[in-house]
């Protein structure tokens, strides 16, 4: 830390300027901003969506069923879980329970958006709920937390822009995967798009000790419980990891003299 | 598959409804109410708790290699985490992981 002693203040000034820009945007401009900031995620949604179309079609689902999953469920990891378990001839109730367990995190996302969007209208909250996927959540919550003074209209606009780009891409490319996906050579390792995406989404947060502790517990417990039915182990691991993150944060706050 | 079309559509519709209700739960029912500090503190760690838990078994025991640990995929996962932590950039992390995977699979 010997070089550029003024770098932190310059960074703070840049952050302040970007907050001022965010606050001055009209709702429609916020939407464009959300859509633009979602574009890098297309590198994820495009192969991931195509992968679902390809995998589900290969498992024997027809085009309407593939699109039924994609439009009505709109949740990648649970769609893959359902297709996998149906291919394994699991009982229907187990398929539904396991796939819903994978989606339990959505309830946590829903809860963490309440401070930011809880005051929006009923239809707006229903629309947000429908398009609440890992990527729209991760991008929006980061934006809301960095610029706490946004209006409801600006927050909804930003979320809508992100949702149209990312959910739209998911649907379009599932369709493409289901129709033309068989042309992709089998040597292309599309399967690994899923874990790489998940890891890339959380890696930037790992420099903070509570986040790193939470992620470590998540990985260890999930691997230890891998023998349980699909989706159950990760769910237990996630709850323990959240407790770990919160406890570590509490410990750090106390050690630094009780300031939050 | 051994399921009828009706069984598959039943699964899709119930899964879709259930997933929507999970997403709508707090936003829809609780609305504007203030939530306790300890609860909000736990929620900060949702993504960093759930996503690694889902990814870890997929990394260590990939379905593509019939559950056998694969050096190329392990290296790709490590590269994703290292690049993402170093650059704080999701896209850089994805590119690093994809490049490592392709090189690793080419070499093996």
Automatic annotation (TrEMBL), chain A:
Keyword Transmembrane helix attributed: yes
Family: Belongs to the AzlC family.
Subcellular location: Cell membrane
Signal sequence annotation: none
Name by which UniProt lists this protein: Branched-chain amino acid ABC transporter permease
UniProt xrefs under Pfam families: AzlC
Domain of life: Bacteria
UniProt keyword Cytoplasm, yes or no: no
GO cellular component entries: plasma membrane
Transmembrane segments: 39-61, 156-176, 188-206, 213-230
Bilayer topology term: Multi-pass membrane protein
An annotated GO BP: L-valine transmembrane transport
Keyword set, alphabetical order: Cell membrane, Membrane, Transmembrane, Transmembrane helix, Transport
Organism the protein comes from: Paracoccus aurantiacus
TrEMBL record, chain B:
InterPro entries xrefs: Brnchd-chn_aa_trnsp_AzlD
Swiss-Prot/TrEMBL keywords: Membrane, Transmembrane, Transmembrane helix
Transmembrane segments: 6-30, 42-64, 90-107
Name of the protein: AzlD domain-containing protein
Protein species of origin: Paracoccus aurantiacus
């Amino acid at each position: 830390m010997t070089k550029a002693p003024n770098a932190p203040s310059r960074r703070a000034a840049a952050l302040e300027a970007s907050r001022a820009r965010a606050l001055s945007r009209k709702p429609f401009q916020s939407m464009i901003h959300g859509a633009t900031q979602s574009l890098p995620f297309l590198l994820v949604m495009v192969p991931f969506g195509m992968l679902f179309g390809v995998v589900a079609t290969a498992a024997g689902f027809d085009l309407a069923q593939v699109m039924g999953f994609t439009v009505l469920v709109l949740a990648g990891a649970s769609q893959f879980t359902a297709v996998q378990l149906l291919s394994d001839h699991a009982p229907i109730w187990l398929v539904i329970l396991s796939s819903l367990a994978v989606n339990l995190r959505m309830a946590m996302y829903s809860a963490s958006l309440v401070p930011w969007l809880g005051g929006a209208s009923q239809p707006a909250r229903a629309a947000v709920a429908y398009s609440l996927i890992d990527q729209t959540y991760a991008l929006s919550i980061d934006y809301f937390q960095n610029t706490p003074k946004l209006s409801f209209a600006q927050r909804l606009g930003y979320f809508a822009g992100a949702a149209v780009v990312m959910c739209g891409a998911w649907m379009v490319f599932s369709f493409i995967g289901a129709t033309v996906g068989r042309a992709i050579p089998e040597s292309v390792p599309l399967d690994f798009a899923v874990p790489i995406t998940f890891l890339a989404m959380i890696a930037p947060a790992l420099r903070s000790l509570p986040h790193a502790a939470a992620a470590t517990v998540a990985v260890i417990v999930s691997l230890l419980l891998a023998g349980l039915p699909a989706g159950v182990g990760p769910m237990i691991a996630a709850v323990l990891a959240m407790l770990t993150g919160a406890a570590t944060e509490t410990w750090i706050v106390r050690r630094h003299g009780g300031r939050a | 598959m051994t399921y009828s079309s009706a069984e598959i559509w039943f699964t899709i519709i119930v899964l879709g409804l259930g997933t929507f209700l999970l997403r709508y739960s707090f936003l829809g029912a609780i609305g504007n109410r203030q939530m306790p500090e300890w609860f909000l503190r736990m929620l900060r760690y949702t993504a960093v708790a759930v996503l690694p838990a889902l990814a870890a078994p997929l990394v260590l025991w990939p379905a593509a290699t019939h559950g056998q640990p694969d050096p190329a995929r392990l290296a790709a996962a490590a590269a994703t985490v290292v690049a993402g932590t170093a650059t704080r950039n999701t896209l850089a992390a994805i590119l690093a992981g994809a490049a490592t995977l392709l090189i690793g699979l080419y070499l093996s």
